[in-house]
Amino acid sequence: MKKIKHNLKKIAVITGASEGIGAALVNELLQNNYKVIAVSRNIKKLSKLKSFNSKYKSNLEVFSADVTNSFQLLSVAKNIGPPDLLILNAGIYEPVSIENFSVETFIKQSEINYLGVIKSFDAFIKKMLLSRSGTVLIMSSIAGWIGLPKASAYAPTKSALKSFAQSIRYDLAKYNIVVKLCSPGFVNTKAVKVNDFKMPGLMEPNVAAKIILKNINSKKFEITFPWLFSSIMKFLTYLPDNLSYKLIKYVTLNDKEK
Ligand SMILES: NC(=O)c1ccc[n+]([C@@H]2O[C@H](COP(=O)([O-])OP(=O)(O)OC[C@H]3O[C@@H](n4cnc5c(N)ncnc54)[C@H](OP(=O)(O)O)[C@@H]3O)[C@@H](O)[C@H]2O)c1
Predict the structure, then answer these.
(1) Ligand 1: residue whose CA is nearest its atom 46
(2) Measuring from atom 1 of ligand 1, which residue has the nearest CA?
(3) Distance between CA atoms of 201 and 75, rounded to whole angstroms?
């Protein structure tokens, strides 16, 4: 019997889609022939994606949902088909000031960066389990590899995501669902505007999005970039702790402190 050819586009769901790396990924996914479901809180910013990508707007659906709210996420999931690609990208960064230490920022970053990913995963994975296919990409960070100054609230959320991704990939393998971890270095978005130092290897979001999409079907579990900065940071994780500590401390001290 002749096979019926389906001309259906692959569905990509992305959280944290309204700006930064997420918005650049929306653009890249549309250009790569995906139907994109863009999710974040701010509907005005999401609507701008439609005008920005007007050529592809029939392939773009936007939904307002907060990743800390399972009910909102589930109502998005109810309205769409099973994702072929689920990108759990929403996240925030707030540096820690030891002089103004605030538990609130730890709670906030844990709830959005870590539990927000778990809640989003929960909302969308059920349909993927039924379709027994697809890819889940979890947005971590190089900051999740090793402790860094002022990152004591952010970095643990990203380490937790790495651990989550490493574990869940065993459970999803039998459903033919691939898990990938993305660990970028510095990307020039609103999130890093708070940094008051020169960020090594700072990359534009559209370049980051191209690298991510290029590697989405690769066999590698972790996608990391830029090459030089990520290689140096990886090297630091192999060093004895007293050495990596001294190096990071020296490099991140400001001129007055040196
Ligand atoms: N920029 C970097 O250097 C860098 C490096 C490594 C990893 N990352 C990670 O990459 C991801 C994207 O970061 P970015 O730099 O592109 O940040 P960004 O420009 O600030 O964008 C963050 C996105 O997340 C959404 N968001 C924030 N809180 C949310 C919530 N509670 N519910 C739903 N959406 C929420 C925001 O949209 P709304 O305001 O509309 O909700 C926005 O679309 C984050 O997970 C970040 O940790 C960034």
Answers:
(1) 91
(2) 187
(3) 39
